[in-house]
Amino acid sequence: MDLAFHHIAIICSNYPQSKHFYHKVLGFEIIEETYRAERDSYKLDLAIPSGGQIELFSFPNAPERPSYPEAQGLRHLAFAVNDIEESIAQLAKHDIAVEPIRIDELTGKAFTFFQDPDGLPLELYQK
Q: pLDDT tens digit string along 101-121?
């Protein structure tokens, strides 16, 4: 099997807010935005610079998914960054709360967590 990462899909509770967060705050470029009338749903494809995509969906009345306490399933989404402190400073300009930097005891690399508008845990991981 020859596998490569293609995309991650996120169902958001407030589509305009999440679109702003992932496009304007995190800086992912928009590939395509589609409104699907039969589902009353938007689908936004965003390019990840290192390859792959994030798909944002706006499904009406989607149930909430617990993030805390940590539940089984997808734990978080991590982004590799060249300079973790610079990345944190960029998030601070948008009033995004970021946890204190920690050091991965296995790799010695710095990392931290923050949340998207729906509370999805996101990680910055120093390259």
A: 999 999 999 999 999 999 899
DSSP state of 48: -
DSSP-assigned states of every residue in 2-30: -----EEEEE-SSHHHHHHIIIIIS-PEE
Q: Which pLDDT score, from 0 to 100, does residue 3 have?
A: 66
| Identity of the residue numbered 60 | P
Q: Domains of the chain: which residue ranges?
A: 7-62, 75-127
- Contact in structure between 15 and 59 (CB atoms under 8 Å): no
What CATH number has the domain spanning 7-62?
A: 3.10.180.10
Query: What digits encode the pLDDT tens for the residues 63-73?
Result: 887 777 777 77
